[in-house]
Design brief:
- With about 425 residues, the chain is of the alpha+beta class.
- The two termini are about 35 Å apart.
- The chain has 14 helices and 14 strands.
- It has helices at about 20-25, 40-45, 50-65, 120-130, 135-145, 175-180, 215-230, 285-305, 310-325, 330, 340-355, 360-380, 405-410, 410-420, and strands spanning about 75, 105-110, 150, 155, 155-160, 160-165, 195-200, 200-210, 240-245, 255-260, 260, 265, 270, 275.
- The chain has five domains: about 20-65, no CATH class; about 105-115 and about 185-275, Alpha-Beta Plaits (2-Layer Sandwich); about 115-180, no CATH class; about 285-360; about 365-420, no CATH class.
- β7 and β8 form a beta hairpin.
- The radius of gyration is 25 Å and the shape is globular.
- This is Reverse transcriptase domain-containing protein.
């Protein structure tokens, strides 16, 4: 994949915002959200969407045409951050990575110090231009990030305005995307080392064969150098490493050094909402999912007391409880123990008693979601795992993936191929 030439995409057409888009956006606003520095409530925008959408559409389009963002749109009040929420149902794009016999893997979970706050607009503009983003859009984004104004509110008191020309605004929906584009050039140059990125979550995975860690440590040095050149600061105190070594009687491995500090070695790590252990066992993760789901059962019981219709109770269960139980089920279900699966299934049985109707079992949810995800990967030639879904000469079945260990056998790709080859279950 590193050697494939990427064709230049066709030029983008100028962005135009329609009144209908603004109207739909205003009508979807959450009225419980607090007002901004302008004291205009979301409730006002929502209830007056028909009258205000033409005005705001004109303002937005004028801003795009002139590549200038009104100053009042760039004024914000910083708030203390709540605990970082993890995201992604699928642990990023599923990538076929396994450890051959006699090898081991070192995984570095990188932490940045105030990642979004360190973006340099001038550097970002150059990177956007290299990605063939139209010059007008580059200028608009640069203006959006430059000369922003902030003040702090404490009770009824407010501080003086401070002008800021670095970083991306706190809570801005553009911030994760801009950071991803900003770090797009940070890649791995060695075949045995992968650099995975999801917004500001960066992970370096090195496959170590014959005890040679030079490529892995070299990519670490390249990462440190790249961050230094692009105004990103690595937090060596919060960066942790996990070593997955399934060899018999492995010798202790020396710690890696990041920014002159030894990196802490972890037994487990909470990665994008999922707890991963060095043994690739899922008891800890399932225990956490069960606890969260049981806590949310309280709200389902309260809604039942208010005599809500069964359909609304099912919708609540699907959105609030089932989403927890199946996060991300395609990764861990096949390797989970029967005891752990039973814990999660008991939550579903409890929900069935409260709602008064049958619900999809954990097995059914796993099969349907695995098949859907596998079919999506098989239909996407650009996906790294697409080549694993190869048809037999008959064209009726897929070629099974050979496995040597139960750990590999119970991972996503071998089980997904088997599910696609088996007779389909009744769709949910």
């Amino acid at each position: 994949l590193h050697t494939l030439a990427t064709p230049h995409p066709p030029p983008l057409t100028p962005l135009t915002i329609k009144e209908e888009q603004v109207n739909r956006l205003f009508k979807r606003l959450n009225t419980r959200k607090a007002t901004g520095p302008d004291s205009v409530s979301p409730s006002l925008l929502k209830h007056c969407a028909n009258q205000l959408s033409p005005v705001f559409a004109d303002i937005f389009n004028t801003s795009l045409e002139t590549c200038h963002v009104p100053t009042c749109f760039k004024t914000s009040v910083p708030l203390s951050q709540s605990p970082k929420r993890q995201r992604s149902q699928d642990l990023m794009t599923t990538d076929p990575i396994w450890i051959p016999p006699g090898s081991y893997a070192r995984i570095l979970f990188v932490d940045f110090s105030s990642a979004f706050n360190t973006i340099v607009p001038a550097l970002l503009r150059d990177k956007l231009f290299q990605l063939n983003v139209p010059d007008s859009m580059c200028s608009w984004i640069t203006d959006f990030l430059t000369d922003r104004r902030q003040f702090v509110r404490l009770g009824t008191h407010v501080s003086d305005l401070q002008h800021i020309s670095t970083g991306s605004p706190q809570g801005c929906v553009l911030s994760p995307l801009l950071f991803s584009l900003y770090t797009n050039g940070c890649t791995s140059g060695h075949q045995s080392v992968k650099l995975l990125k999801f917004a500001d979550d960066t992970t370096l995975i090195g496959l170590i064969s014959d005890g040679d860690e030079s490529a892995y440590r070299g990519e670490m040095d390249r990462l440190v150098s790249w961050c230094s050149m692009n105004n990103l600061e690595l937090n060596s105190l919060k960066t942790v490493e996990m070593i997955m070594d399934f060899r018999k009687d492995p010798a202790p491995l020396p710690p890696v050094i990041l920014c002159d500090s030894p990196v802490t070695s972890a037994e487990s790590f909470h990665f994008l909402g999922t707890t991963i252990t060095k043994e690739l066992k899922w008891e800890q993760n399932i225990r956490s999912l069960t606890k969260k789901a049981q806590q949310r059962m309280y709200f389902l019981r309260q809604l039942k007391k208010f005599l809500l219709p069964v359909k609304m109770l099912v919708n609540f269960y699907t959105a609030i409880i089932e989403s927890i139980l199946t996060s991300p089920i395609t990764v861990w279900f096949a390797a989970a123990t029967a005891r752990d699966k039973a814990k999660l299934q008991r939550v579903i049985h409890s929900a069935e008693k409260v709602i008064g109707c049958s619900l999809s079992s954990l097995q059914e949810l796993y099969v349907s979601r695995s098949r859907r995800r596998a079919a999506k990967i098989a239909a996407d030639p650009s996906h790294p795992g697409n080549e694993l879904f190869r048809s037999l000469p008959s064209g009726k079945r897929l070629r099974s993936i050979k496995t040597r260990t139960s750990r590999h056998k119970n991972s996503f790709f071998p089980t997904a191929v088997n599910l696609l080859n088996s007779a389909p279950l009744t769709p949910r």
